[in-house]
Amino acid sequence: MGAHAPLIANVCDNPPDDYCMICQHEKLNEALSLTLECGHMFHKDCLDMMIEFKGCAICRQECRGPLPDISAEESGPWPEWLEAIAPSHRPQVQHELLEQSPPTDARISDLEMAFQQARERTARLYNEVLRHQANLSEARLLTETTEEDLHQQALDMSEIQWDEHNSRIESIQRKYKRYQQMLYAKRLQVMDYEFDHLKSLAEYNKLPSDPNEELQHRYYRANEWVVARELFHSQKRKQVIGQALESVYFNILSPQYTMALGDRRGDEGYAEKKVSEAEHLWRQSVDARDDAKDRLDLALYHKSLFEYSE
Q: Are residues 56 and 110 in the same domain?
């Protein structure tokens, strides 16, 4: 798919004070950043974690060179998982590996240890994601409970009370109903995306157990990323609509209630940020875990070639 082709990019010596458009929670000058041929800049780690990445995340201009020629003979042992990386009709991989000394038992032991450590770290970070997600659910419930209290107070207002707050541009009661409906619809959308995202997180977190699951694992990765972006933008939009509704409450209800809602919404936004940060670290760890597994599998395959030839 082109994801293993070399990335054509240069290290950015003086990155601007702008947020990376991939992770969107860390600025470019806070980590190693790369400039693509199209001129767009991203964190190197953010580019690396997109296993199917072929083009700029903004303009989609291709930024990888041609795939390297890695291939193998059809004779000898041939693990199915290698087919996804180097189809068997290319005749070079086995020949090149046989020209190199096989990995020692100590080297394989090191790779096994690295893989195990990567698995444990990924499991720990996945649990961190779930913990922050639980905190977000709690913060969101508090926000929605406070919003419902204010909504009930607004429903109890008489028409005369509403008329007292009307402006020349738009009836404040009409504005309130419009924002209330928009927030309700956006809240349902966030719930749907959140459900899909939690499901895709669990699917992508699983380590492929056989060769047939390798491509499905890549699909899970792409799907998790797409749903995460949709969820991120829906959450931001929900916060904006909520703040607009909050301004209406500020004009018609006691300030102490609207201030409490502002605090709740701030806590919810902070919880969303912590979830996003935890997911970012987890994605990088999954990438490192899968890479460690590939290195171990290749070393075992390399060693098996010599055992087979004997």
A: no
Q: Is residue 4 part of a domain?
A: yes
Q: Are residues 113 and 16 in the same domain?
A: no
pLDDT tens series, the chain, 310 aa: 444 456 678 888 888 888 887 766 678 888 888 888 888 888 887 777 654 455 565 555 666 565 444 444 444 444 555 555 445 544 577 777 778 888 889 999 999 999 999 999 999 999 999 999 999 999 999 999 998 888 888 888 887 777 766 655 557 788 888 888 999 899 999 999 999 999 999 988 988 777 667 778 878 888 888 899 999 999 999 999 999 888 888 888 888 778 888 899 999 999 999 999 999 999 999 989 988 988 888 888 888 887 765 5
Strand partners, 27: 19
* Domain span holding position 38: 1-64
Q: How many CA atoms lie within 13 Å of 38's alpha carbon, on the beta-carbon side?
A: 15
The two tokens of residue 304 are 């098996």
Neighbours of 154 (CB within 10 A): 19
Give, in degrees to the nearest 5, the angle at Cα 195 between 192 and 197. Answer: 105
Assess contact for 67 and 92: CB atoms under 8 A: no
- For the domain that residue 34 is a member of, what is the CATH number? 3.30.40.10
In this structure, are 294 and 211 located in the same domain?
yes
3-state DSSP assignment of residue 234: helix
- Overall number of domains in the chain: 2
This model's pTM is above 0.70: no
**CATH number of the domain where residue 275 is located:** 1.10.287
